[in-house]
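anyone else get weird line breaks when pasting these?? whatever heres mine. first is seq + tokens for prot A
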Amino acid sequence: MKDDWRKADLSKPDYAMLEYAEKLSLAPSMMNEGDIANLRDAGWTDRDILDIAHVCAYFNFRVRMVDGLGLELGDWQLERSKAGAERAQVLADQRGQAMPADPWGVRAS
């Protein structure tokens, strides 16, 4: 599951939550009302959705602070990051969606 949550046997609400969190993390400017509607359709309340967004934002904040302060990552962390970017590109290709711009060459490194 840690490598590809889509392969796990998840409930509809859990799948919708992870799909939302993934999109919010990778392409926040592409979020729209449909993303919230998908969560509601899966059974999440507005309070639940707020909690999901807060937790996702918090973890993204932590990552950005570590990266922004230039803290060093281990090789295993860099490999997982690159693998995640590659998986995100595959998923975007499968869905016929473009990945957000990569002005700093993150996916190329």
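and prot B, same format (seq, then tokens)
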Amino acid sequence: MSPQPRPAKELMELDEIDCAIVEALRQENATNIDLARRLGVSEGTIRQHLKRLKDAGVLKVAAGIDPDALENQQAALVALNVTRAYLLEQKAREIAALPHVLAVSIVSGRYDLMAEVLVNSNHGLVDFLTGELAEVEEVSATESFLLLKSYGKYV
């Protein structure tokens, strides 16, 4: 069963308030009231901007945890090549839908795609590569990089 493609993110120009909201939320979690006070606007204005940003797929507010704090979990990067360049977006979406994948990026350089994964220890990476990822057709090569220690990284 192939995953349903997600609609492309809506292209939009971020205004000054949008940028300030995003930057404030990058620093710490804040309520709409806190954001409104900090930015000198009404809570309703914050609510409207957040809704617009979320609806457009530009902003996702989520909690993250330091992967080094997760016992028996291993974060890794998996670099991938696909057989045909026109398949890049399709394969990126398919891989992004796999259970252990946190994110996938189309990249330049030696590889076509870079997947961030979080698995159960080293055996989990083997299971991911030989099970989940092996089901994705048209992947011609992979190289894995274990993240031994991360700084400023949250999953």
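btw re prot B: Residues 67-146 form a domain with the Alpha-Beta Plaits fold (CATH 3.30.70.920). The mean pLDDT is 89.
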